[in-house]
Structures are given as structure tokens and as C-alpha cells.
């Protein structure tokens, strides 16, 4: 049953029966979210129509308001995958809208509680239509699509939708792009690229020129759980990734950039209300996602789950209820400028710019002996911050962080054997071989030279990365060691 504040209950928030191909949203329609103090079950925060008796349940789409999981009092206008109540497109908004209006001039807009416009399509159209593929389109009098959600994605690509080089997926500080070269990139704050791969193995050459590449979950009208790169210059669609359940039928599939910075492929049954399950992720090791644990946070694993903690007991969480918000010093370096010291972090690496990015950004880059570099970094006032760190017994690197004395240790965290293989559940033997191979290389190479790579920074968002142990997938040179000092 539609609530009283819905002026056109059968047009504004629409679900599709099996025998209906599309539904129209008429001009002069408006919709409001539930009252903030009214207790409504989560799946009723958006309106839906019930299927007639005797018809099997089916995945459908609706358009309306949906609360954010982190704050159920904050609503956003969204295209919603039902019955799982999964948003597949959200209208850009920094404040909770009070109503959705489809004006007589064809402008679709969101209005806040004061009557101010917080987002609008700015398109004069004749009709809005939400089709059974999940695309919300605005059309003019000749039925030409003027604007649609498939061409303006937010964080999700549905199985009938293509991602082009003109669009980006965004989720918080993270973004995902398809480059003209065919590479897939994940970025933090549009500045740090922490994933940059073709992601597929075929006859495709990295130097090959592409005409107009797109990413798609569908080829020849079929969706089998394979993510493809499609381009006119390729003899056939190139496989980017296989879902763990590829080939299974009767599944609805989509890819999404999550708030944790990882791109994942999901599936759910077309004939049940099951929650979408993740079948593939771009970054296999969640701790390699840049900024996952926030400023001065360290990512590690507790059994199989990534957890965020502070570098040492010289730090405290920035927000007690959200460890992903990073850490802050108990005492700032400015309070002990002439008396700061170094806290050594074993089995830890700081994630940051690649070396060439550091140099190109006007930072000072130099190599020198370990002790000299350590002393130089200790005395430089700019070496204060880092953003993202990773700690694991599989890492042989040592990192250093600057603190006010005394330099305190962290309480040990219980780590299972799963931690050593979190890079990929299928690579346990590879990881062990890598560690053993590296240790053998250390024995053979007696005269190891330790390098330290330092750089200056003008603000906290810039910092340095130094990798001691390359991962199994990237290749390791036995005996190749880079010790580093960081802020």
C-alpha cells in the first residue's frame, strides 16, 4: 500500500510485473521519503507494489528513496534493485532530499527541507521511463533519450549496462575508470592509483590502439558471470575476469565500487530475495587498497578479515566507533620538536606514490645509507604523516614512524595462517616459496646494501612508499631489499 505522501503511487516508485515491459513517470509528479520519526522496516523505506497471487517472485527495479546504511535518517533518491533493496544508482547529493519532483518542463530535481534544489537533471523532456533493465531515462517528444542513469553511473554497473571511458564509478574518495588503452584503474582522491592492470590474458597487446573500449558483463545478449572488454579493434571480447560462479544461469549480475575501495562482481538469484554475494574482486588483498585504514592507520588481518589498528600505543583511533577513520598521535610532534624519536614497525610497509610519481611531484628524492637517512628524516620537520600502512608476517619490510617519546609498542594481534595467504586463497604454496626463496637469497648475498628513500612533503596527503618485499604476483628478486624510513 502506498503512503499518503505519494502523489502518483503507481508511477513514481515503480516495479515491473513479468508482463510489463516498462513504466512511465508523468510530468508534475513528486515523491517524499518516509517521515524521519516514523518506524518503517528497512525494506519499506522505498515503495513497491506486490506481485499478483500465483506469479513467481522476480528481480525488479524501483525508483524512490533509500536510507544510507551508515545513517538511516539520511535518504537518497535511488534506482533500487528489489527485493534485496540494493541501490544501483544514487542521485548526487550532499544532503538528504525532502522530495523528488518531475516538473512540467521536464526537469527532474531533488529538493531539500528548505526548498533549495540540491540536484537536478536540467533537461526539458516529455517523459521519464524506468525500464526492466534498471535504466532510468529522460526522453523528449520524439522519444530520444536526453539523459539516463546508464550513461551517468554512480558506483554500479548492471549486467545490461556498459562502462565507457567517459564515465567513472565513484564511492567516497575512491574512483574506478576504464582507460582508452583498455586498462582498469582504481584511484584514491583522483591522485593515487593503487590498481592499474589490463586484468586479462589474451592476444591483446598493451601497445594496441583501441577505438572505443567498453566494459560489459554481457555479450550477444548473454550474461554468464564474465567481465569483458569489448572494442571494435578486437577480434572478440577480451576476458577481464571470471566470477567464481560463472556459467550459472538464472542469476542477476552487477559490478560495484564499494566504500572500502575495492571493485567487486556480485550475483543473486533472479527468483529470490537473497542478498547479493561477491564472486570476484579486483584487489585480492584488501590491505593493498590505498587509504583503507585512513590517515596513519595500519591494515592487518585477524584470521581472514582485514582490521585497522594504530601504528603503536603512541596513537589512538580518530573515531572510536570507526577504526577505518585512521589514527592520531596522543602527543603531536610540534609538542616535542627537538625531542622526537622513531618507532620501528616490523613486517610493515607504507603504501604511497610510486617512485616516479614522488619525483614528478616536486618532492626531494635521494638515496643514502640507512643510518644517515634515518637521522635525516628524524630531523626534518616535514616528515610527520603517512596515510596508509600494511602489516603482515609475510612482509619482510621494516617501517619507521616519528613519535614523541617514549616510543611504545603495540599489543600483539592474533594472526592465523590465513594472514600469510590473504593475497589469494589459491596461492599458499606461492607465498611460502616466495618467503623461503627470499631468505635463501639473503644468505647467498652477503653484501646487501640498505637503501633508504626519503622525501619532503608540504601537506599530510603526500608521503612516501618503500617496498621491501614484492608480492608473488608481481615477482620477487631474491635478496632484493630496500629498507626505508617513513616520516
TrEMBL record:
Q: Tell me which SMART domains the record gives.
A: B_lectin
Signal sequence, renumbered to the chain: 1-23
Q: What is its main location?
A: membrane
Protein topology in the membrane: Single-pass membrane protein
Q: Name one GO molecular function term.
A: kinase activity
Q: Which UniProt keywords apply?
A: Disulfide bond, Kinase, Membrane, Signal, Transferase, Transmembrane, Transmembrane helix
Cross-referenced InterPro entries: Bulb-type_lectin_dom (IPR001480), Bulb-type_lectin_dom_sf (IPR036426), S_locus_glycoprot_dom (IPR000858)
Compartment annotation: Membrane
- BP term (GO), one: response to other organism
Transmembrane feature ranges: 428-453
Domain of life from the UniProt record: Eukaryota
Name all Bulb-type lectin domain ranges.
Answer: 42-151
Q: What's a GO cellular component annotated to this UniProt protein?
A: membrane
- Name of the protein described by the UniProt record: G-type lectin S-receptor-like serine/threonine-protein kinase
Amino acid at each position: 500500500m502506498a503512503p499518503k505522501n505519494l502523489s502518483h503511487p503507481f508511477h513514481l516508485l515503480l516495479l515491473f510485473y513479468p508482463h510489463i515491459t516498462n513504466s512511465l513517470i508523468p510530468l508534475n509528479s513528486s515523491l517524499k521519503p518516509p517521515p524521519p520519526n516514523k518506524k518503517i522496516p528497512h525494506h519499506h523505506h522505498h515503495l513497491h507494489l506486490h506481485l499478483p497471487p500465483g506469479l513467481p517472485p522476480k528481480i525488479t527495479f524501483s525508483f524512490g528513496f533509500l536510507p544510507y546504511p551508515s545513517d538511516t535518517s539520511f535518504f537518497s533518491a535511488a534506482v533500487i534493485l528489489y527485493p534485496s533493496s540494493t541501490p544501483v544508482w544514487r542521485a548526487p547529493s550532499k544532503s538528504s532530499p525532502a522530495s523528488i519532483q518531475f516538473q512540467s518542463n521536464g526537469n527532474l530535481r531533488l529538493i531539500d527541507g528548505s526548498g533549495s534544489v540540491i540536484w537536478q537533471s536540467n533537461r526539458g523532456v516529455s517523459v521519464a521511463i524506468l525500464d526492466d533493465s534498471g535504466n532510468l531515462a529522460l526522453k523528449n517528444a520524439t522519444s530520444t533519450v536526453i539523459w539516463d542513469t546508464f550513461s551517468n553511473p554512480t558506483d554500479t554497473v548492471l549486467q545490461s549496462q556498459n562502462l565507457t571511458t567517459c564515465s567513472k564509478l565513484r564511492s567516497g574518495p575512491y574512483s574506478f575508470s576504464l582507460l582508452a588503452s583498455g586498462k582498469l584503474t582504481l584511484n584514491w582522491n583522483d591522485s593515487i592509483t593503487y590498481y592499474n592492470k589490463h586484468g586479462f590474458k589474451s592476444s591483446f597487446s598493451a601497445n594496441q590502439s583501441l577505438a572505443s573500449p567498453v566494459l560489459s558483463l554481457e555479450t550477444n545478449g548473454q550474461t554468464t558471470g564474465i567481465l569483458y572488454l569489448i572494442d571494435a579493434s578486437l577480434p572478440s571480447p577480451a576476458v577481464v575476469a571470471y566470477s567464481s560462479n560463472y556459467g550459472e544461469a538464472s542469476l542477476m549480475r552487477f559490478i560495484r565500487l564499494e566504500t572500502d575501495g575495492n571493485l567487486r562482481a556480485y550475483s543473486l538469484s533472479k527468483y529470490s530475495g537473497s542478498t547479493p554475494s561477491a564472486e570476484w574482486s579486483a584487489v585480492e588483498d584488501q590491505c593493498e587498497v590505498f587509504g583503507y585504514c585512513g590517515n596513519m592507520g595500519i591494515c592487518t588481518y585477524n584470521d581472514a578479515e582485514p582490521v585497522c589498528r594504530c601504528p603503536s600505543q603512541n596513537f589512538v583511533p580518530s573515531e572510536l566507533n570507526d577504526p577505518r577513520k585512521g589514527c592520531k598521535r596522543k602527543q603531536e610532534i610540534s609538542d616535542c620538536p627537538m625531542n622526537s624519536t622513531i618507532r620501528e614497525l616490523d613486517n610493515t610497509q607504507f603504501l604511497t606514490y610510486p617512485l616516479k610519481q614522488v619525483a614528478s611531484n616536486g618532492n626531494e628524492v635521494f638515496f643514502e645509507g640507512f643510518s644517515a637517512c634515518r637521522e635525516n628524516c628524524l630531523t626534518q620537520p616535514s616528515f610527520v604523516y603517512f596515510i596508509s600502512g600494511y602489516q603482515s608476517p609475510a612482509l619482510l619490510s621494516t617501517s619507521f614512524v616519528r613519535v614523541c617519546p617514549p616510543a611504545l609498542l603495540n599489543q600483539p594481534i592474533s594472526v592465523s595462517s590465513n594472514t600469510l595467504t590473504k593475497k589469494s586463497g589459491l596461492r599458499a604454496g606461492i607465498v611460502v616459496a616466495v618467503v623461503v626463496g627470499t631468505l635463501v637469497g639473503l644468505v647467498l648475498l652477503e653484501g646487501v646494501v640498505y637503501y633508504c628513500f626519503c622525501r619532503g612533503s608540504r601537506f599530510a596527503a603526500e608521503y612516501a612508499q618503500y617496498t621491501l618485499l614484492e608480492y608473488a604476483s608481481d615477482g620477487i628478486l631474491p635478496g632484493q631489499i630496500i629498507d626505508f624510513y617513513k616520516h
